[in-house]
Amino acid sequence: MAGHSHWANIAHKKAAVDSKRGKLWSKLSKDIIVAAKMGGGDPGANIRLRKAIDDAKAVSMPNINIDRAIKKGTGELEGGNVEEILYEGYGPGGIAILCEIMTDNRNRTAPEIRTIFGKYNGNLGSTGCVAYLFDRKGLFVFSEGTCEEQLTELALEHGGEDVKANDDGKLQVTCSPEFFAELSNAFSEAKLLCEVSEVTQIAQTEIEVDTTTARSVLRLLEMLDDHDDVQGVSTNLRITEEALAEREG
Question: Is residue 59 part of a domain?
């Protein structure tokens, strides 16, 4: 499997320093609502809910907001009509893009996402047009200096599939989604701190394009990621340091 692109780390860092806190809290609330709706309101028995709550607390989301979102998900309060949708499309150069959406109004969200694709030289495609190029996996990324031997041993014991260094030189572990909770608990008990911990779409093969095209794709990814209903964006673009440097410059 190709190494995960920089985009997960870029988006993660962006969220961590995002000054638009209200927008970030809104996205996290939707994640909590859907998690509670699917698996119940007890974080002790619902690993997805527990992670959603941890993510919310990591960005100082008030407990009252978290509790309200849980109650919406369990039906104790109105406002829990949030559904998950996967939108697929193409960016500049034919690069594949997947958008994981959580929305309470798909009739509003679909045209807005289509407009973003079009504005930044992409196209929103039909269901199944690029999803076959990705695998849904649990992903963990660890900071430099993490013991690779310990990481590998835990991964092998708890359902991990692959341990390797990514393009940033950091260690990443992938697993099937059904082993995500077990592996997450194992890393937590071993006090191995993850920089990224998520179930996401990972490209089977990454594609490298010229720098100009890469910059255009990055701009589209940023605009999609900034939309209120977009919870995650995945791409098969191989994001080079050169493209990042020119984009940031």
Answer: yes
